[in-house]
UniProtKB/TrEMBL annotation:
Catalyzes the decarboxylation of orotidine 5'-monophosphate (OMP) to uridine 5'-monophosphate (UMP). Pathway: Pyrimidine metabolism; UMP biosynthesis via de novo pathway; UMP from orotate: step 2/2. One of its GO terms (biological process) is 'de novo' UMP biosynthetic process. This is Orotidine 5'-phosphate decarboxylase. PANTHER family: OROTIDINE 5'-PHOSPHATE DECARBOXYLASE. Keywords: Decarboxylase, Lyase, Pyrimidine biosynthesis.
Amino acid sequence: MSLTREQAAGRIMVALDYPDAASAEALVSSLEGIPCYMKVGMQLYYAAGPGFVKSLKERGYKVFLDLKMHDIPNTVKGGANSITKLGVDVFNVHAAGGVDMMKAAMEGVDAALAADSSLQRPLVIAVTQLTSTSMKVLNEEIGISGSVQDAVVRYAQLTKQAGLGGVVASPQEVELIKAACGDDFQTITPGIRPAGADVNDQTRIMTPRQAIEAGTDYMVIGRPITAAADPRAALQSIIEELI
Ligand SMILES: O=c1ccn([C@@H]2O[C@H](COP(=O)(O)O)[C@@H](O)[C@H]2O)c(=O)[nH]1
């Protein structure tokens, strides 16, 4: 796999896990000119709201809104409808909500697009098993038997059946997901840790290079960049690892 610097940057989604818009803004400014995705998750969205998402879009960023919706189908349909109106590029639901819930998300998207033809169609993806979940937790706490890989592939197949475009999983599962759901089915993978980096609360990890070689489409990276003394240098070093 050989990527240009720009292609490598475009495969990275920087997780803006910050408590307020000012802190996130400082990180975004420090990365100016690098064409990576920006990922807005619960912490920042609940604090800064849709205005921050719109400001990223106005500045030309591709945005992954990572709110992991998991509710009854009617509520998820409404949520997906509102998110589509924000103009984000990617958003997600939990595959554990089931096929009807995931189909409802797609209905919410379709209704927004039917009402406003200027909107873009977002990529809708589903979370399989969180990358912090180990086999021990899956089996002994959550009570799902079998391997994490089996659970992830099953969720991925349900996600495809519901008509979504891909899943969130660990890079360790990308090859199995692609084998089960096809090469075009997108894999968005957190659990990325450069060699020697703090693992934090992640359990199913790979280095950026290993993830790209495993075939991941996009890698989500937070603390290895945001907690670095020089976030721009940390991101550039990851990009160098990928080219
Ligand atoms: O299974 C999942 C789903 C989402 N995430 C999110 O990705 C980033 C990872 O941040 P790091 O600091 O690189 O660990 C974070 O926003 C999570 O909410 C995930 O880690 N695993």
